[in-house]
């Protein structure tokens, strides 16, 4: 038998869970966009930059069109870390250099965002 109340409660719980996902502060978005473009590639774009309060995580997702639409995710979660996805990209010196610079920016991002997560974002709970 269909239980409408149970479905409503399930949907309500999903909505409540989504309140724990917030966008980062505008100044963080602008700052890291600029740092990434200057350090890695001017074509780089940030697609998402979210704080996940329930899992104590921040994820920044972006892409680099000039590197065959390479996509990347920065995560504070040590299992994910820096995740890169790209299809058929020749690993020449220029590409290796850009990926190396992306990793360097990730390491700086991780250090700064770990502090911000504890000192700013989680204090808003």
Task: Tell me the overall shape.
Answer: elongated
Strand segment count: 5
Estimate the helix proportion, in percent: 40-55%
**Please, what is the oligomeric state?**
single chain
- What proportion strand? 15-25%
Q: Tell me the number of structural domains.
A: 1
Regions with pLDDT < 50 over 5+ consecutive residues?
Answer: none
Number of helical elements: 3
What class would the helix/strand composition place it in? alpha+beta
Largest sheet: 5 strands, antiparallel
Q: Kindly, what is the distance between the CA atoms of the first and last residues, rounded to a whole number of angstroms?
A: 39 Å
Q: Could you give the order of the helices and strands?
A: HEHEEEEH
Report the mean per-residue pLDDT as an integer.
87
Radius of gyration, whole Å: 18 Å
Strand order of the largest sheet: 1-2-3-4-5
Keywords:
single chain; 125 residues; alpha+beta; 3 helices
Explain the overall architecture.
The protein is elongated, with a radius of gyration of 18 Å. The chain is built from three helices and five strands. Helix 2 packs antiparallel against helix 3. The chain is α+β, with helices and mostly antiparallel strands. The termini are far apart. 46% of the residues lie in helices and 23% in strands. It has helices spanning 4-18, 26-39, 93-121; strands spanning 21-23, 45-52, 57-64, 70-75, 82-85. The model has no long low-confidence stretch (mean pLDDT 87). The protein has one domain (18-124).
